[in-house]
């Protein structure tokens, strides 16, 4: 049984965490610290200027090469660029470059910021690309364990991607449960409508009684 897997928008991939400190207090020639470059990168992400954000996070890492959250944001940027190259049917070298950059940055992010749930959701997406679904589920569940109650955005990402993982594994009722949890966390819009349609398709074909 095959179902269409919907993708969430680029804006939903980034959780703009502002950190209170970085481990290195050095400044560059214009007087910016690693933290200031990081926060500038978050501002660029908020404006959907990925290339500018990439430069800012790279500058943060030049000043502090153990700044885990900067690695994580870079990893998420490279994941988005990877998906863009795939959608454009770019050559394999371009696709492979961004995949590897995302993998390497997220791996370092996990090393230096092991309590940032975005690192685990990002890494899970890469595992899903490689069909390492069991590993992706484990990382998404770890992200759920680390996520704080007020962070609805990451809860939505976790529910959505767990739904996709369970769908790939043929665990349809688990998938429906996660997709329904996702619907409780997101506003009305095309993405919500797409997931609602997918739930109805699964329930219709499997004759799953809708939950009350």
In words, what does this structure look like?
- With 212 residues, the chain is an all-alpha fold.
- The chain contains nine helices and no strands.
- α8 packs antiparallel against α9.
Would you list the SSEs in sequence order as H and E? HHHHHHHHH
Strand fraction equals: under 5%
Structural class: mainly alpha
Low-pLDDT regions: 1-12
Query: What's the N-to-C terminus distance?
Result: 25 Å
Number of E strands: 0
Shape: elongated
Helix content: 55-70%
Report the radius of gyration as a whole number of Å: 18 Å
Total number of helical segments?
A: 9
The major sheet is characterized as: none
Mean pLDDT: 87
Keywords, please?
9 helices, 212 residues, mainly alpha, single chain, disordered N terminus
What's the short version?
The protein is mostly helical. Helix content is 67%, strand content 0%.
SSE map:
Blueprint: H1 34-46, H2 50-63, H3 68-87, H4 92-112, H5 117-129, H6 133-146, H7 152-169, H8 172-183, H9 190-206
């Amino acid at each position: 049984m095959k179902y269409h897997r919907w993708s969430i928008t680029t804006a939903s991939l980034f959780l703009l965490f502002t950190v209170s400190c970085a481990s290195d207090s050095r400044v560059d020639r214009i007087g910016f610290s690693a933290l200031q470059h990081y926060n500038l990168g978050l501002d660029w992400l908020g404006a959907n200027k990925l290339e500018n954000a990439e430069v800012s996070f790279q500058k943060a890492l030049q000043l502090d090469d153990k700044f885990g959250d900067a690695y994580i944001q870079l990893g998420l940027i490279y994941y988005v660029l990877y998906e863009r190259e795939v959608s454009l049917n770019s050559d394999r070298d371009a696709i492979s470059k961004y995949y590897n950059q995302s993998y390497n940055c997220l791996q370092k992010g996990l090393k230096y910021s092991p309590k940032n749930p975005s690192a685990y959701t990002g890494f899970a997406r890469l595992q899903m690309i490689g069909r390492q679904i069991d590993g992706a589920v484990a990382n998404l569940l770890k992200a759920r364990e680390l996520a704080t109650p007020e962070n609805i955005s990451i809860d939505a990402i976790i529910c959505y991607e767990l739904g996709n993982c369970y769908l790939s594994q043929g665990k349809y009722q688990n998938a429906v449960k996660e997709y329904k949890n996702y619907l409780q966390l997101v506003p009305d819009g095309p993405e919500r409508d797409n997931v609602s349609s997918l739930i109805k398709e699964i329930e219709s074909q499997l004759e799953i009684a809708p939950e009350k």
